[in-house]
# Entry
Amino acid sequence: MKRILTLIAVIMAAILSVTTMANPVVLYEDRVTPVQHYLPAPNDLWVGVNELQAVNGFELKPEGACLEDICVPVRQDRDGDLFVTRKGKNWFNVTGLARKLDQPYAADHDANVWSLGPVPATRNQFVQQGIAPDFTLPDKNGKPVRLSEFKDMKVLLLTWASW
# Structure
């Protein structure tokens, strides 16, 4: 009888800990996004597909998870490493996508907080295109000069620091 009561206490404690676990929160691009629907998993963040865009900007399309010109193929007709269906609801693995994109992320599992770094492919587009982002700096007389003023011209930028 004592064993049965102990077993019941352990099961009740497990149920209580699962039901009181806070919903995940995602930190990304200076935003804090609370996740309303998630699939509990020990090492990955699975969100409802309708919350994917709010969490990381990606949209699930028939061809895959897409953000601007970046599209990662995702099979949606069966369970896979990025997409699963449980009890009629579709779930997306945000951290699995991050690994495919070499996107850094960190998790505080106790607090259920996930932090996503920048997607490297989005940061490298201007390098691949050979187009620098526009910026403004003062010239030697203190007058502001924008890089875009030199459009269609070759520009050599020299930088120097005393440290």
Notes: Residues 13-20 have pLDDT under 50 and may be disordered.
